[in-house]
Design a protein that fits this description.
The protein is mostly beta strands and 66 residues long. It is built from one helix and four strands; from the N terminus they run E-E-H-E-E. The chain starts with a strand and ends in a 5-residue tail after the last strand.
């Protein structure tokens, strides 16, 4: 749902580590998720989940007619 010109979404993970924006090399098998979020979102944050894990919350700009 678009709110205030953005689609807001959250992706959660039960892991104990905090996601970090990294720059993996071509041979890396992971570490690209936040690069995609950072390139598409106008704003994003990492929040702890109440019981376990973390959520990445991102606002993707809504563009009409395109």
């Amino acid at each position: 749902m678009a709110r205030d010109g953005h689609y807001w979404l959250a992706v959660s993970d039960p892991g104990t580590g905090k996601p970090v924006l990294a720059h993996p090399d071509a041979d890396s098998e992971s570490g690209r998720g936040l690069i995609l979020v950072d390139s598409l979102a106008s704003a994003w944050t990492v929040r702890p989940r109440p019981m376990r894990g973390t959520s990445v919350i991102a606002g993707i700009p809504f563009r009409q007619g395109g």
